[in-house]
Amino acid sequence: MFAGRSDIFPAVNTLCDLGLSVFIPAHNERENLEPLIRSFAEILPGLSPDPELLIIDDGSDDGTGELADELARTIPFLKVVHHRVNRGYGAALQSGFRESTRELVFYTDGDGQFRSEDLAGILPLIEQADIVSCFRTRRCDQWYRKLNTTLFEWTVRLWFGLKVKDPDCAYKIYRRKVLETISMSSVGAMIDVEMLLQAQRAGFRIVQTGVTHLPRRSGESSGSDIRVIFRAFLEIMSLWRRLGYRFRR
Fold first, then answer.
1. What domains are there in the chain, each with its CATH number?
2. What is the dihedral of CA 139, 188, 108, 47, to 10 degrees?
3. How many angstroms separate the CA atoms of 216 and 114, rounded?
4. Closest residue by Cα to residue 22 from 41, 3, 6
5. Cα(68)–Cα(210) distance, integer angstroms
6. pLDDT digit string (tens) for 83-108?
7. Helix 191-201 to helix 143-160 angle, to the nearest 10 degrees?
8. Which helix (H) or strand (E) holds 136?
9. 3-state helix, strand, coil in the chain (%, to 5)
10. pTM over 0.85
């Protein structure tokens, strides 16, 4: 059932020996998770001879965790990590990076707003980089979420000088040496920025490319929740102090 389709992925054959982990953080994504996981289960054997797929269930209470366990019983290379309570997006990413074991580590969100098949197209870019950080070519969200994202990106660029477009886009590949060098402490929305900042300061090579963004099919995102936005602001201040940044001109 999951024999893979290596015949349609010739561009990534040279990367197969590196090994590939894919993890999906998910909080209350029962309606979106299964088609996403099954699509990754279909393509991963064509991208790596020994693939690893993980679901990080961040304290879901809608049956996401139970569904994840059911999927793991039918997909041999799928592993599920459960948080007993909702610990936040950054904590879910930390668990995913910690539990992933392959040389290349990719992650995307469990809301189904990104396509699994796009991974085959961006994977070869890691040959010339340590990180592939994607940006949404056309964001399919409500206007207020787009505004929040734009303000967030401007703030990050002004305060930290991060030269990355759409830094919180959840479609990234990391080499393991990056994960072994940087530290992660953010438990909320600043996790992507924290990692990219440290990687930039350490001199790791970051390559960017566009990726397709899709409308959310089910459920609601927490990104526009005022509590999430306020916590993100507090994390910006905390990261500013922790990393000792100064305003840049």
1. 11-243 (3.90.550.10)
2. 140
3. 9
4. 41
5. 29
6. 999 999 999 999 999 999 999 999 99
7. 30
8. strand 131-136
9. 45, 15, 35
10. no
